Amino acid sequence: MTESPWASCELCPRRCGVNRAGAKGFCGEGAELRIASASIHRGEEPPITGEGGSGALFVTGCTLGCVFCQNYQISREGMGRSVSTGEFAEICLALASRGVENINIVTGTHAAPALADGLAAARKQGLVLPVLWNSSGYETGAALERVSNFVDVYLPDLKTLDPEIARRWFHAADYPQKADRALRAMLDARGELRYDGRGVLVSGVIIRHLVIPGELYATRDVIRWFARNARGRALFSLMTQYTPPKAPSGENGRDAPPDRHLNQNEYDALLSWLDEYGVDDGFLQEPVRNSLWLPDFNRVNPFSSTLSVPVWHWKTGFAVS
């Protein structure tokens, strides 16, 4: 008899050992799959958004503890509700019926077994869209193996290669080591970019990195890592949307996150390093210096109407189309 994947949980690198069939792990979740929102999302990179938008499913819970998390309502406050395997499949099919380009699963590592079951059910019911694994990069081989038969595009973060930054702001000093290993596995699995006839990515890897103001040396290390390990095999997405948190979770002193946006001199430095390391296959976000784009998962449409069209919400269920 196969042991439950929730017993003595080791799905993420923390390996907290909690029996999630009766208690919550570090991720804040038990054995039930919980979803906060499903929408037609138009704010992703162009080969993901395409013309139809990305079918984004936001999973409740998270294996990290980022002090400036934009999705803190679902990653740390538990916003969302339980869905069965059948309801998850129904949500996927509803997104597909609205013409999305893919199914984009956001922060699903801690729920990998339930997501694998849900994706298998959706496939049996006719889902043929590519599936994206949109994650923090803080993964184990066991979790990736759970979903490997269903994932076409990996969309991981590479948050930092600096253990001290990882400890201070992501509450995971081992993040660099674990992310390096996970991203290499993703590249081995999907290290060839393939597109459909309209330029939508149907298989491959896009590696994202959020620039932290005042810590540009760490971004330079990430750019160098990409040039050495992923150039020609993946796309690089450099994001400048860091927004100071309204409540930095009680952090103080040197552990407090930056309280400003990226400045122009820092942005110019990014341009020079991309050129220096020959990284030109990907995306560089224009400077973002406001918080208007931040989501609020209390709303049926957590994002602005220009970025998102709601399909399902944890409070109201399916939206009326």
| Integer average pLDDT | 94
State the end-to-end CA separation.
45 Å
Number of helices: 9
CATH names the topology as TIM Barrel
User: Could you tell me the strand content as a percent range?
Assistant: 15-25%
Tell me roughly what share of residues is in helical segments: 25-40%
Annotated CATH architecture: Alpha-Beta Barrel
Q: Secondary-structure blueprint of this entry?
A:
Layout: E1 34-41, H1 46-49, E2 54-59, H2 72-75, E3 81-82, H3 85-97, E4 103-106, H4 112-124, E5 131-135, H5 141-147, E6 153-156, H6 163-170, H7 175-190, E7 194-195, E8 201-210, H8 216-229, E9 235-239, H9 264-276, E10 282-284, E11 308-313, E12 317-318
Parallel strand pairs: 2-4, 4-5, 5-6, 6-8, 8-9, 9-10
Antiparallel strand pairs: 1-2, 1-3, 1-11, 7-8, 11-12
Structural overview:
There is one protein chain. With 321 residues, this protein is of the alpha/beta class. The chain has one domain: TIM Barrel (Alpha-Beta Barrel), CATH 3.20.20.70. The protein is built from 9 helices and 12 strands. It has helices at residues 46-49, 72-75, 85-97, 112-124, 141-147, 163-170, 175-190, 216-229, 264-276; strands at residues 34-41, 54-59, 81-82, 103-106, 131-135, 153-156, 194-195, 201-210, 235-239, 282-284, 308-313, 317-318. Strands 1, 2, 3, 4, 5, 6, 7, 8, 9, 10, 11 and 12 form a 12-stranded mixed β-sheet that branches. α5 links the parallel β5 and β6 (153-156). α3 (85-97) crosses α4 (112-124), α4 (112-124) runs parallel beside α5 and α8 (216-229) runs parallel beside α9 (264-276). The model is unreliable at 247-251 (pLDDT under 50).
